[in-house]
Amino acid sequence: MTIAEALRAATRRLEATSDTARLDAELLMAHALGKPRSAMLLATRDALGEAECDRFDQLIDRRAAHEPVAYITGTQEFFGLPFAVAPGVLIPRADSESVVQAALDEAPADAHVLDCGTGPGTLLLSVLAERPAATGIGVDASTTALGIAAANCESLGLTGRAQFFQRDWTQPDWTDQLGTFDLVLANPPYVEDHADLAPDVRDFEPGEALFAGAEGLDDYRVLIPCLPALLAESGVVVLEIGSRQAEAVEKIAAAAGFNTRIRHDLGGRPRVCVLRLGLGK
């Protein structure tokens, strides 16, 4: 069987599981062969060996059972960078690139950055990669996430510019000894508890990084009032929000003394809330 034939068969099988069946098949084939996808696509007439066929079939079996491609391959591209991911951390989404772009637009080039709920380090490390003079701290309640974030920091060549600490913003002392920051980033949980999610998300990704109460607002209500104490003079907060949450998050922020501005993602949906203290500090 050639690579092309195996890809066609896998695509047909995955059409019941995925809206991106062909792309999934290509990514998994490249992973099975240990090649970049671009190189694999140039070799589609090549025959697959028995071991390669078996390896690819096993990967397709996992995807057919709804396991996310990123968990199968162990990596997800975000803002042009390869991030290692694994079960226990949220997979970076393209929508979150709007948060990074807003941060780059809003913060100084040498910003000291705090990433709340850093996960695999997605937001913080993307900003640092674009701003060589910036430094930062990532905090998360999950030791699994922090380990992956530290590994991503090293693999992206950012060691020495970022530190990672275990902190849980539901605990009263979580801000102790962190200092102040020019930029605070957060992609907190914002999915409603009753939301109907795809099996790829619901059955595999960590619920504590997704769900935030009946309205999806619980973590904003806890996190946002803590942020004024973490901001340096003229500091800015950049939050990811759900596409229907702009008004509610703005009200929570206003009660904490913030002026707000909403930015949209590439699909034209409200995606980012930019917060600045009304009278500065």
Describe the structure.
The protein has two domains: 3-65, Orthogonal Bundle (Helicase, Ruva Protein, domain 3), CATH 1.10.8.10; 87-277, Vaccinia Virus protein VP39 (Rossmann fold). The strands form two sheets. A seven-stranded mixed β-sheet has the order 5-4-3-6-7-9-8, with helices on both faces. The protein has 281 residues and is an alpha/beta fold. The protein is built from eleven helices and nine strands. The model has no long low-confidence stretch (mean pLDDT 95). The protein is elongated, with a radius of gyration of 20 Å. The longest helix is centred in the N-terminal third of the chain and has 15 residues, at 50-64. Helix 8 links the parallel strand 4 and strand 5 (162-166). Helices cover 36% and strands 20% of the residues.
Search tags:
281 residues, Rossmann fold, alpha/beta, single chain, elongated, two-stranded antiparallel ribbon
